[in-house]
C-alpha cells in the first residue's frame, strides 16, 4: 500500500458470499450465500519488529488496528509502507463475491485503507478504498463518500471476477 496512516479502527463482520441471484435493489447481500469466517480465515499482518498485541486488539466483536507513519514494513527489507491489517481467506478466482463490513475511522487518521482486493489481471490490486480527511476515495481519486470520521459506516463491495467489474 502506498499510504501512511496513524491509526485505524475496523470492525469486520462475518459475511462474505458467493453469488446466486441478485434482483433486489435494496439489500446488496440479497441472493448471496454467507461464508462463515473464523480465526482460520484471518491472516494478521503488522510491522515486522512489533508483536501483534502492540498493534491490534479484538474485543466485543471489534477488530481494532493501529499503525504509525514511522513503523517498519511488514517484512525486513521491504519498501512497502507500514500496515496493520487482516488478510481474509479464502482466495477466489471466479464468480461474484461480496465483502460486507462495518468500519470506524477516528479523526486524526489519514490514508487508512478500509478494504483492498488483490490479484487483478494486471498489477497487484483490483480495488482499494481509503479514507483521507474523512472522505472515502477509490485509490487517491475519485471521492466516493464524505464525512466518515468518528462514525460507524457500512461497506458492501461486490466483485464480479469473470465480468472484470
Ligand atoms: C473455520 O472455517 C473454515 C472455512 O470455512 C472451516 O473449514 C473450518 O472448519 C472452520 N473451523 C472452525 C473451528 O469452525
Ligand atoms: C465490551 O463490552 C462490555 C459490555 O458492554 C464492556 O463492559 C467492555 O468495556 C467492552 N470492552 C471493550 C474493550 O470495549
Ligand atoms: C477533526 O478534528 C479537528 C480537530 O478537532 C477538527 O478541526 C476537524 O474539523 C475534524 N475533521 C473532521 C473531518 O471531522
Ligand atoms: C506489484 O507492484 C509492484 C510495484 O508496482 C511491482 O514491482 C510488482 O511487480 C507487482 N507484483 C505483481 C505480482 O504484479
Automatic annotation (TrEMBL):
SUPFAM superfamilies attached to this UniProt entry: Concanavalin A-like lectins/glucanases
Residues of the Alginate lyase domain: 43-155
Molecular functions per Gene Ontology: carbohydrate binding
Keyword list, A-Z: Lectin, Signal
Signal peptide: 1-24
UniProt protein name: Concanavalin A-like lectin/glucanase domain superfamily
Amino acid at each position: 500500500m502506498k499510504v501512511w496512516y496513524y491509526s485505524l479502527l475496523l470492525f469486520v463482520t462475518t459475511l462474505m458470499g458467493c453469488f446466486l441471484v441478485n434482483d433486489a435493489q435494496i439489500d446488496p447481500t440479497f441472493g448471496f450465500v454467507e461464508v462463515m469466517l473464523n480465526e482460520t480465515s484471518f491472516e494478521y499482518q503488522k510491522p515486522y519488529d512489533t508483536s501483534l498485541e502492540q498493534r491490534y486488539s479484538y474485543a466485543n466483536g471489534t477488530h481494532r488496528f493501529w499503525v504509525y507513519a514511522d513503523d517498519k514494513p511488514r517484512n525486513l527489507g521491504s519498501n512497502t509502507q507500514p500496515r496493520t491489517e487482516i488478510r481474509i481467506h479464502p482466495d477466489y478466482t471466479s464468480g461474484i463475491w461480496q465483502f460486507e463490513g462495518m468500519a470506524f475511522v477516528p479523526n486524526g487518521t489519514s490514508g487508512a485503507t478500509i478494504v483492498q482486493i488483490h490479484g487483478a489481471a494486471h498489477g497487484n490490486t483490483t480495488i482499494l478504498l481509503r479514507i483521507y480527511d474523512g472522505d472515502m476515495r477509490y485509490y487517491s481519486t475519485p471521492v466516493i463518500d464524505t464525512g466518515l470520521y468518528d462514525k460507524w459506516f457500512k461497506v458492501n463491495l461486490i466483485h464480479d471476477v469473470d465480468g472484470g467489474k
